[in-house]
Amino acid sequence: MTTREALSAIFMAILLVTAGLVWLLGPYGLIAGGLAVLATTLLTDKKEDDDG
Question: Which residues of the chain have pLDDT under 70?
């Protein structure tokens, strides 16, 4: 799995969780979804490996 595919899967999962939270909790689901995106952005390793 490439980095692009992994990030796409992560963001798709976040979108699905956010949609579920909004459906269940209304505006509080949007806040929780925003916090999930923030946490993912802050905790994702952005270093690129140099192979040569």
Answer: 45-52
Distance, first Cα to last Cα, the chain: 20
Say what the pTM is. 0.56
Please give the C-alpha separations between residue 44 and each of 4, 7, 11, 17, 50, in angstroms, as whole numbers. 13, 9, 12, 18, 18
pLDDT value, residue 30: 79
What is the rounded CA–CA span in Å between residue 23 and residue 46? Answer: 32
Greatest Cα-to-Cα distance within the chain, rounded to the nearest angstrom = 49
DSSP letter for 44, please. S
